[in-house]
Amino acid sequence: MQVADVVEGDIDVPFAGQTYDMIYCGSVFHLLDEAKCKKLARNASKLLATSTKGEQKKVFFGKTVGSKLDSPLWKAEQLRYLHTKETLRALLEEVGLHDVTITSMSHPEIPSDTTMLTFIGYK
Amino acid sequence: MQDGKGAKDYEPNEDTIALFTRYGGVSSKQEIAERGRRIREKALISHPYRCIQGRYLSPPFLLTSVQSTGSWRPVWLIIPAIGNSLRGKTRRKERWVKISTAQKVQSGYQVLDIGCCMGTDARVMLSDGFVTEDNFTGVDICNDFIQLGYELFEDKDRLHCKFMVRNIPSSCFPVLI
User: Fold this and answer.
1) At what angle do helices A34-47 and A85-94 cross, to 10 degrees?
2) In angstroms, rounded to a whole number, what is the distance separating the alpha carbons of residues B14 and A7?
3) Whole-angstrom distance between the N-terminal and C-terminal Cα of chain A?
4) With 0-12 CB in 10 A as exposed, 13-18 as middle and 19+ as buried, what is A45?
5) Do B167 and A8 touch (CB under 8 A)?
6) What phi and psi, each to the nearest 5 degrees, are found at residue A31?
7) By CA distance, what is B114's nearest residue in A?
8) Inter-chain contact A105–B69, Cβ cutoff 8 Å?
9) pLDDT in tens, A46-101
10) Structure pTM?
11) ipTM value
12) Domain residue spans of chain A
């Protein structure tokens, strides 16, 4: 099974300077290895506008398959790194998001050692 | 990958049928299933990804994820007054519809969908009025997926929101299509 390579490089020219008030990222993190997960989070944070006082909060949210175990899962044959709730929270905070909330949800179509994580963080 | 099983047995769920009904004017379960099978077969030829095949019966590209996996939470939290008025009173999907309707007033709000694939969630947000064509941008690495989305929903001539092909993100400018 191939996986989509959706993250590469740094964001020197972030969409011609465009930033966004809300970024949705559904089912992408679980396609990536650990390094690319970091790049995706970092670059999504760069694409997210910074809210000023009185403005609506800018939000990054979405879902990903995650590890149900105490530690992340590395699916080496697929080059997929599956975060736990805790490591995903740490990653989003590391890239500058705050008030991060991660929720674990059951899902009937994913392996038993995994869980569906929904996430939300603000900037 | 469970080759063959998903494509043969696929039946759209109620959320997918609802999306096709209100957005695409198609309510026939059989027709939606046929479109899903056809598009999946095309996509798998060059892109044998799990997100296209699915593990069991449902091709993920046809699931209305933004609506069904708790993604109402951001708007709930951004507009607490609306959230509080609905809290505990309605089911999640009903909350999504009500909140997304309220969110229409936020003009100029720019929304980016990273990894939009065939744009199913884009159509959910558009048809729910959560975004407009002017304030939504979908990005995916694969132009084929975006084009197959137009074929899936038969809306190439009427959908005018921005989709970009992008290896998210690289150092060069995106291709606008």
Assistant:
1) 50
2) 33
3) 36
4) buried
5) yes
6) -90, -5
7) A25
8) yes
9) 899 988 877 777 889 888 999 999 999 987 777 789 999 999 999 999 999 998 98
10) 0.80
11) 0.87
12) 20-52+70-115
